[in-house]
Inverse folding.
């Protein structure tokens, strides 16, 4: 596994579906909570209304793909690790 450090690298791998954010570990969960406190709308609920780490990851990736600022906020300020398989 390789860690993603730049927005350009993130976009390259995101476009082919290879980026996986660390949101299921305790540290990853805390990072998602920090983003929520900053006002990010990351619900992470599946169609039954239960929280799902896969859904949280998808929502986070979609938000980060929108702009370099979003990626930098998640990566540098909240501490989200983005990995490529």
């Amino acid at each position: 596994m390789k860690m993603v450090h730049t927005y350009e690298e993130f976009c390259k791998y995101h476009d082919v579906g290879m980026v996986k954010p660390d949101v299921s570990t305790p540290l990853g969960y805390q990072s998602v909570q920090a983003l929520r406190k900053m006002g990010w709308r990351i619900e992470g609920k599946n169609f039954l209304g239960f929280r799902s780490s896969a859904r949280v990851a998808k929502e986070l990736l979609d938000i980060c793909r929108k702009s370099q600022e979003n990626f930098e906020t998640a990566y540098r300020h909240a501490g989200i690790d983005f990995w490529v398989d």
Q: What stands out?
A: The chain has a mean pLDDT of 93. The first strand starts at residue 2 and ends at 4. Residues 11 and 66 are 10 Å apart (CA to CA).
